[in-house]
Structures are given as structure tokens and as C-alpha cells.
Design a protein that fits this description.
Elements (H helix, E strand, L loop, with lengths): L1 H6 L1 H9 L10 E5 L2 E4 H17 L8 H24 L6 H14 L4 H9 L4 H25 L4 H8 L2 H7 L2 E10 L7 H15 L4 H6 L2 E2 L2 E2 L1 E10 L23 E3 L2 E11 L5 E12 L7 H16 L4 H8 L3 H4 L4 E6 L5 H8 L10 E3 L2 E14 L1 H32 L2 E3 L7
Antiparallel strand pairs: 1-2, 1-13, 3-6, 3-8, 4-5, 7-8, 9-10, 9-12, 11-12
Helix pairs in contact: 2-7, 3-4, 4-7, 7-16, 8-16
Length: about 425
């Protein structure tokens, strides 16, 4: 969303700094459902278009009538979306807006205060601020609406993951360094093999692979190699490395292996991207107590402390959860939440259980109006590579469909809206 705001920054700023002429009367030039577009709005935006034509950002030669028609269509769509956003309850609070403005300021090498000061020199800060609020509101509306309209099937994900495009889109990239001990005759390579083994041992003892490869000779025998410049996907690595590098850990150095050229030693310096993912998970159970029609906030707090003490005195956690918890999802299972990954729980809940040892019971803690007791049953590291691959595939497929679905939706809301265009009519 902020990327979109940044892209639109120069355009919006142009819009913000074009003054509304005092002599304009705010004649209605279009009725759009329950709202109107005023001539002053249109003139401000049209003045901006002329500024951009003069600056060369809009090509010259487009008939002014065509530009006016396109601009009015854009204003109508913005107005329709704004009405929809308001009806949907979408709001951008001041804190969120200030964060966005701070990001825009940083992208233009200014602090928030400097940015505000520059805009205030022409008295345009408030109008620019409200324009960004409007842009963010429409972005939120579009994102929520379009993502609900897009369907990604399991079969689409499977087909994508089997495609060559998937390998290019989601496969990892590597930074690799290597040493080559070349051989002239593969059948007479005993000395080169000894040298490769010696170099490997030196690397294990902390020698720098780039320094060794740059020496060009070791013990009178030639060596080569160095850094394979830049980030490379597996398919762009030298052929003899492709089956080796993907299975390496960062910092790992291979034992010498042979090819037609000689003996190779490879070091994986860095790795990025890809779908390999291991996550820490915690198996938890809890008791939730919250105020209701028959229990006050104070009574809820008293009850959670009473239950905590009963567990400490030896009563079974699961039995108490089945009787007292206000969480219907875990009541039958004695408060069991199953395996939870970081980010699945509310922040205060995660803080409360983060330092627990296996079997340990938390102190009663509050999250909003609710009270909890939690117990850590176990911890594990789970390989979620397959799930991560599917998630990334779904996101890529969703992005591919987004623009087309957005265009369809905008066409639909325009076609179903009441629009009465009065631009060009003579005013009374």
C-alpha cells in the first residue's frame, strides 16, 4: 500500500499545490449516486494535468476534450469508491496516516517535521494529508474487495508449483565462493588430490577461501576460483555445483569433489528466498475467564486466581478447563490449543508463555478484559516448507489475477451507479 502511495507521490503533490481559483463558483458537473463532483475539484485536477503536460510527464498532442473526459471518469470512479468505503466503515486513523506520511518523507530524504514544513510553506500540508488519507482508504477498499473476489484453487497451486515459472519465482538464490585445483590428465592427479585435501583442511582451520584462490599457486601447483559474482539461482550455477549447493548450510564448505576440470571446493556464503522454512511451535492449553452478564470484571479476576491456586494445589488443569473456561473451542479438550506458531496468539499471550519451560504454568494474566492461565505442554521445531511453498504460490497467483479483477470490479460499480454528467452544460 505504501509503495502505491510513493508511486503516486509526485502526482498527488502536484494536485495539492494547485490553488483553487477564488473566482470559481462550485457548480455541480456530475451527480454520482448520493454525492456530487464540483467544478472546482475538476479544475484543480485539470490544472495539474496541464502542469504535467508542460513538464513532459503526459505526452503532448492528446486532444484536451479526451483528457477532460478521462479525468472526469477517474473522478467518478474515485467518488464511487469513496462512498463505498464510507458505507463499509473503512477509516484511516491519524496514527496510521502519520506513519504513512513519515514513510513518504523518508523516501524523499526528509524527516516528518521537515516534510510538513515544506508543504506548510504554501499552506498545502492539510490538503495533502487528506489526499493521502483518501488514497489509503481507497487502497484498503480495493484490497479487501478484490481479494475476496479472487479464488485460487488447489489445482492451480499444484499446476504452478510443477511449472518452470515456479522455479524462477520462488526458488532460492545463493552466493558462492570456490577453489579449483585444475588437472591436465584425469588419470594422473595424485598431487592435485593431495593439494585439494590440504586446502580443505586449511579452510576448516579458518583460512580465507578468497585469499587462497587468489594466490594462483600453492606448493607450485596452479589454483583458481574466487567469488561467483552476485546472487545466483541453482540453474545459473556452474553445472558441477547445481547438485551440491542447494543442500548446503550457510557457511558450509564441501570436501573436494571432481569434475572434468579438476578438484572443486565450494563454500556457501549466503542464501536468500526460497520456501524452506522451519518454525518454532509450542503446544499449549489454557483457561479463559471473561466478564459476562452474570460475572463482573472483578469476579472474573477473582475466579482466575482461584483456579490458578486450585491447579497449584493439585487439581487437574484439564478438568477445571472443561468446567470453567469461556473458550468454547477448547472446552471439550480440556483447554488444549494444539500446536501454536509465533504470531497465531495475541501479543500479550505470546509474551506470557514465551519464557515458560515444559510443564510450567503461567501466572494469571490479562488480555483486554479477558483473563488467562496457560500451561506449556511441549515445544518443537516444525518443517513447514511445503506449506510455505503453497502460500507463496497462492500469493503469486493472486497477484497475477489482481489487476484484471480490479478492472472488472471498477467497471461493475461504474455500470451499476447512477451518474448524471453535467460537464459542458451552460450554467445559469
Amino acid at each position: 500500500m505504501l509503495k502505491t502511495i510513493n508511486i503516486l507521490f509526485s502526482l498527488v503533490l502536484l494536485l495539492a499545490i494547485v490553488p483553487v481559483q477564488a473566482q470559481l463558483s462550485d457548480r455541480v458537473i456530475a451527480v454520482v449516486d448520493n454525492d456530487v463532483i464540483l467544478e472546482s475539484e475538476f479544475t484543480v485536477r485539470m490544472n495539474s494535468v496541464r502542469e504535467q503536460i508542460a513538464a513532459g510527464t503526459i505526452p503532448r498532442g492528446i486532444p484536451i476534450e479526451e483528457l477532460e473526459s478521462q479525468l472526469l471518469d477517474q473522478l467518478i470512479l474515485e467518488n464511487l469508491q469513496s462512498q463505498l468505503a464510507i458505507r463499509s466503515g473503512i477509516r484511516i486513523d491519524d496514527n496510521t496516516l502519520n506513519q504513512a506520511l513519515t514513510t513518504i518523507a523518508q523516501q524523499n530524504n526528509m524527516s516528518f517535521d521537515e516534510f510538513r514544513s515544506v508543504l506548510n510553506q504554501d499552506g498545502q500540508y492539510q490538503s495533502f494529508r487528506e489526499q493521502i488519507r483518501q488514497d489509503m482508504m481507497l487502497n484498503n477498499l480495493q484490497s479487501g474487495t478484490i481479494n475476496q473476489r479472487i479464488t485460487i484453487t488447489r489445482q492451480e497451486i499444484e499446476n504452478y508449483l510443477r511449472s518452470e515459472a515456479a522455479q524462477a519465482d520462488i526458488s532460492p538464490e545463493y552466493r558462492v565462493q570456490h577453489i579449483l585445483v585444475p588437472v591436465d590428465n584425469p588419470t594422473q592427479n595424485a598431487l592435485q588430490k593431495e593439494l585439494a585435501d590440504l586446502i580443505y583442511q586449511q579452510l576448516q582451520d579458518g583460512a580465507d577461501i578468497l585469499e587462497l584462490s587468489a594466490s594462483r599457486q600453492i606448493l607450485g601447483l596452479p589454483v583458481g576460483g574466487g567469488d561467483l559474482a552476485g546472487w545466483r539461482k541453482a540453474e545459473s550455477l556452474p553445472t558441477m555445483f547445481r547438485s551440491v549447493v542447494p543442500d548446503m548450510e550457510i557457511g558450509e564448505i564441501t570436501e573436494p569433489f571432481t569434475s572434468d576440470n579438476g578438484f572443486h571446493i565450494v563454500k556457501l556464503v549466503e542464501k536468500r528466498g526460497g520456501v524452506d522454512l522451519q518454525v518454532d511451535q509450542a503446544q499449549l492449553r489454557h483457561i479463559l475467564i471473561q466478564p459476562n452478564e452474570i460475572r463482573t470484571a472483578q469476579q472474573s479476576e477473582d475466579l482466575i486466581h482461584e483456579l490458578y491456586q486450585r491447579i497449584q494445589d493439585g487439581e487437574d488443569f484439564g478438568d477445571l478447563a472443561r468446567v470453567f473456561t469461556d473458550d468454547p473451542g477448547s472446552m471439550v479438550s480440556g483447554g488444549d490449543l494444539g500446536w501454536m506458531t509465533q504470531g497465531q496468539l495475541p501479543p500479550l499471550f505470546e509474551v506470557a508463555v514465551s519464557e515458560l519451560t515444559i510443564g510450567e504454568l503461567s501466572q494469571p494474566f490479562q488480555n483486554g478484559e479477558s483473563w488467562h492461565i496457560a500451561q506449556l505442554m511441549d515445544r518443537r521445531v516444525e518443517d513447514v516448507t511445503e506449506e510455505n511453498a503453497r502460500f507463496q504460490a497462492e500469493q503469486i497467483l493472486r497477484e497475477r489475477k489482481y489487476d484484471n479483477e480490479l478492472e472488472n470490479w471498477l467497471t461493475e460499480i461504474r455500470d451499476t451507479a447512477y451518474v448524471d454528467i453535467r460537464l459542458g452544460e451552460e450554467s445559469d
